[in-house]
Amino acid sequence: MSDYPQLSVNQATLREQCSLAEIVPLLARHAIHGVAVWRDKLHECGVKQGAQLLRDHNMTVTGYCVGGLLSDPDPTVFEQSLEDNRRIIEEAAEINAQCVVFLAGGLVAGVKDIDAARERALEGLSLLIPEARAAGVVLGLEPLHPMVCASRSVLSTMKAANDWRDQLEAPDVVGIVVDTYNVWWDPDLSQEIARAGQAICAFHVADWLVDTSDLRLDRGMPGDGVIDIPRIRALVEDAGYGGPREVEIFSRDNWWRRDPDEVLEIIKARYRHSM
Amino acid sequence: MSDYPQLSVNQATLREQCSLAEIVPLLARHAIHGVAVWRDKLHECGVKQGAQLLRDHNMTVTGYCVGGLLSDPDPTVFEQSLEDNRRIIEEAAEINAQCVVFLAGGLVAGVKDIDAARERALEGLSLLIPEARAAGVVLGLEPLHPMVCASRSVLSTMKAANDWRDQLEAPDVVGIVVDTYNVWWDPDLSQEIARAGQAICAFHVADWLVDTSDLRLDRGMPGDGVIDIPRIRALVEDAGYGGPREVEIFSRDNWWRRDPDEVLEIIKARYRHSM
Question: At A179, is the secondary structure helix, strand, or coil?
Answer without folding.
Answer: strand
